[in-house]
Amino acid sequence: MATTLPKYSVNPPDIDPYRYGLLSVAAVVDEAGKWQVSGVEFDTDACAQGGYVSGMCAEQPGDHDKGHAEGLHTVEGPTPFAVYVRTECNAVGFHEAEPIARARLEWVTPRLVEEFYSREVLAQLGTSRMERPLGDQAVPLRYAVGVLEQHAGQQYAGRPVLHAPRWVAPFFPLRDTSENDDLLRSAPLGSPVAFGAGYLDDPFTAAARDLTLGQVGGVDGTFWLFATGSVRVRRGELHVYETFDPPTNTRLALAERPHSVETDCFMAAVRVDLSREIGAGVAV
């Protein structure tokens, strides 16, 4: 009778970390605090408007009236959320549940933060011309980038952050690669671009809570390209809870970390049609 020899256990291959997603363009702040209860709010001046008057002296009454007045602009961030990983197995041979949970949490966090941002922040964008300058019209990608850059320049004081699903990256107009570093990709005017694996193609109609091929992955060649103000990700302390259940001989470890994603005052979106660039192989 043939004898089956046991496999020789070795370390897994090294992982090249996930790059060019939301966390590559966001300012990341590691601190615990009261924000973990209900989120944050902040006052911003980055979307201020104004006007001008011409000449030293008014030629007609009212020529030098400065009637555009603005008050405080307060931005309320979304509810805080926790990213978690749960590991459990038969306790025999599963002695390192806690470090496994910690390591897995590190790897999945970038994508899950993007998924929250797509569903709970970008998906809340309204339907006004200020927020969707072209309405529901689908346009070529380069045109969409230009429209959002122009729109941001009129409404926001800083460079916008562009957000696109990860499958769009090969088609995206980028700055000369010599001007990009290993962690960041930029559009032609230098605006940072986040290519998120957790971003939905159409977050406005994605009702299901789980990702499906119909929600992400370029199934029909269309997606929504977003532009926002600066993004900041706040992270609390990482906690790991480990338990052992004797009746089932199961060891369990749960790792979790609270997060908050804050976006400055500007947000807009343009629908893009990439079906011509992708070709006839697109599934519909």
UniProtKB/TrEMBL annotation:
It comes from the Bacteria. This is Uncharacterized protein. It comes from Streptomyces cellulosae. The lineage of its organism: Bacteria, Bacillati, Actinomycetota, Actinomycetes, Kitasatosporales.
